[in-house]
Automatic annotation (TrEMBL):
Native organism taxonomy: Bacteria, Pseudomonadati, Bacteroidota, Chitinophagia, Chitinophagales
Keywords assigned: ATP-binding, Kinase, Nucleotide-binding, Transferase
Protein known as: Adenylyl-sulfate kinase
Entry-linked Pfam families: APS_kinase (PF01583)
Domain APS kinase: 2-151
Function: Catalyzes the synthesis of activated sulfate.
Amino acid sequence: MIIQLCGLSGAGKTTIATNVKRKAIAYHTPIEIIDGDTYREFLCKDLGFSKEDRCENIRRLGFVASRLSDHGIVCIISAINPYDEIRHELAATYEHVKTVYIDCPVNELITRDTKGLYKRALLPDGHPDKVSNLTGINDPFEAPANPDLHLRTNEKSINACTSELFAFIRNTISSQLLPVHAQIRN
Ligand SMILES: Nc1ncnc2c1ncn2[C@@H]1O[C@H](COP(=O)(O)OS(=O)(=O)O)[C@@H](OP(=O)(O)O)[C@H]1O
Ligand SMILES: Nc1ncnc2c1ncn2[C@@H]1O[C@H](COP(=O)(O)OP(=O)(O)O)[C@@H](O)[C@H]1O
C-alpha cells in the first residue's frame, strides 16, 4: 500500500508519519517513510519547486514507493504534493494508493513556522532572503476534493492524528487481505 500524504510545509506530515512508523513496530507492520525533504538531498537533488519539478519529484517518490510496496511494505510518501494532476497520476499508475490530506490553515503555519520559511516568503519583494515560491503563500496548493482521509492538525492533537492514520492503515490492510483469504478458502 502507498499512502500519499499532501499538505503545506509545517502541517505535520513528517511528525505524523514518524509517529505512525514508531507505533507500527509493535504491530509488526513494516512502514517506510519516503520524505520529500530527504529525497531532495539525493535522488531528487536536481529538482526545484516549479510545477514540472514538483510533479517529477512525486513521480520518482511514487516509483520508489511502488517497488517497496510490492514487497508488502507500507510506504508513506511525505511530501507537499500540491497538484491534483500528479496525485491522480500516482493513484492511476500503482495499486492500492491512498491519499491523505494533512490540513492546517496557513495562518497557523505562519505561527508555527518551524523552518522560518513563511517569514522569508512574507518578506517584501526584492529582499535578498525572500523565498519566492513557498506553497500556500506565493505558490499554489490544490486541496484534494475527496481524500481517503482528512486530518486537521490545528483541531486535533499529534496523538489523535497519529492514531487516526494508524487505524486507517490497519483497516485498509485488513480490507485488502479479506478477498485474498476468501480466494484461498475457496
Ligand atoms: N519554495 C518552497 N516551497 C515548498 N517547500 C520548500 C520550498 N523551499 C524549500 N522547501 C522545503 O522543501 C520541502 C518540500 O519538498 P517536497 O519534496 O515535499 O515538495 S513537493 O512535494 O515537490 O512540492 C519542504 O519540506 P516540509 O516543510 O517538510 O514540507 C520545505 O522544507
Ligand atoms: N496535530 C498535529 N499533528 C502534527 N504536527 C503538529 C500537530 N500540532 C502541532 N504540530 C506541530 O507542527 C509541526 C509540524 O512539523 P512537520 O511535521 O515537520 O511538518 P511537515 O512535515 O508537514 O513540514 C511540528 O512542530 C509539530 O509539533
